[in-house]
């Protein structure tokens, strides 16, 4: 039986951890009773503190099973899992889950609880005081851009799908966990709401710096959001684990290429801020519409195509700092795209910049 005092010490360390924590999975395997082939086989990975890692792969490949073994909703058959070097398989599973944020596609809000009560669920289980819970609920509602005075006492049925999803994220963050697991959290929303939620979450992650595993079947979502992407095939075999830019530029094999699909160059441009391109001088004859230096080169290319102009000016704040043409945009594809670009673009979208 695991030592109780040791468990308490590890969980206390997790609870007090600021930002994110490292996650190590070492040769994890899951074999269900009565099955001859494992659902997950010999899976190993290290995720750095504060990193947002996307698991992408077809339905049934084992990506959700792999993720659920981290918080032990599913118990592994063999292997080890460590968070900040601590063996999570030695801990009480229920207590462990209270220190790991978990967001699912169906959201899972309690329909007869108010929004404030939903968000405060885990803090109540952890024994927080009513005042501390109230303050944390208000802080999180503001963080996910829902007015506490308007939404705290409403019920889930009184919120839109996108608002409910934001509450689900707030609930997962309530006890300030160092690790968050997200299972296709935006999959049930319409395309416009989904894009907005992605942008808001990237803005939020830039502030909180949690370690996040995010399961999706949408490669476009993986490219936009991930620091690194794990492209998984049957039994959670890792076909490639790399930055979005490197996967787009150098897919490991035909299987990875099939996920990228057509338009790899345009997808790479969506990861690179306009300010990272070689800028020419400000062009007084360029169209009045401009792109910010934090907007992606894909957006800059869209502006050029839409206006038909040979150049477009790039701005920082209210000041033009240079200009871009087709040749400058094309030249960037030969260079390595920065890993932070997707978040830069996401932050720009969240702030409502064009």
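-> sequence recovered:
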């Amino acid at each position: 039986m695991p030592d109780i005092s040791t468990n308490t010490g590890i969980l206390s360390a997790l609870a007090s951890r600021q930002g994110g924590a490292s996650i190590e999975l070492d040769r994890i395997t899951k074999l269900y009773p009565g099955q001859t082939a494992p659902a997950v086989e010999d899976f190993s990975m290290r995720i750095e503190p504060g990193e947002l890692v996307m698991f992408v792969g077809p339905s049934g490949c084992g990506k959700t099973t792999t993720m659920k073994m981290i918080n032990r909703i599913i118990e592994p058959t063999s292997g080890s899992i460590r968070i900040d070097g601590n063996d999570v398989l030695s801990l009480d599973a229920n207590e462990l889950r209270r220190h790991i944020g978990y967001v699912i596609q169906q959201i899972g809000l309690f329909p007869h609880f108010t929004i404030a009560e939903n968000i405060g669920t885990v803090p109540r289980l952890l024994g927080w005081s009513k005042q501390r819970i109230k303050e944390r609920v208000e802080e999180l509602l503001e963080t996910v851009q829902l007015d506490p005075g308007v939404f705290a006492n409403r019920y889930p049925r009184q919120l839109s799908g996108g608002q409910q999803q934001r509450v689900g994220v707030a609930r997962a963050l309530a006890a300030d966990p160092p690790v968050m697991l997200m299972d296709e959290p935006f999959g049930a929303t319409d395309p416009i709401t989904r894009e907005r939620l992605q942008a808001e979450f990237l803005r939020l992650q830039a502030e909180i710096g949690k370690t996040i595993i995010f399961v999706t079947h949408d490669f476009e979502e993986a490219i936009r959001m991930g620091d690194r992407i794990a492209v998984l095939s049957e039994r959670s075999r890792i076909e490639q684990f790399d930055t979005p830019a490197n996967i787009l530029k150098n897919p490991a094999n035909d299987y990875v290429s099939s996920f990228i699909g057509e338009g790899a160059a345009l997808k790479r441009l969506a990861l690179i801020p306009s300010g990272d391109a070689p800028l020419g001088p400000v062009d007084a004859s360029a169209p009045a519409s401009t792109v910010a230096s934090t907007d992606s080169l894909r957006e800059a290319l869209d502006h050029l195509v839409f206006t038909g102009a040979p150049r477009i000016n790039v701005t920082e704040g209210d000041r033009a700092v240079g200009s871009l043409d087709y040749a400058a945009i094309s030249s960037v594809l030969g260079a390595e795209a920065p890993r932070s670009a997707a978040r830069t673009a996401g932050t720009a979208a969240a702030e409502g910049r064009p």
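The first strand starts at residue 23 and ends at 30.
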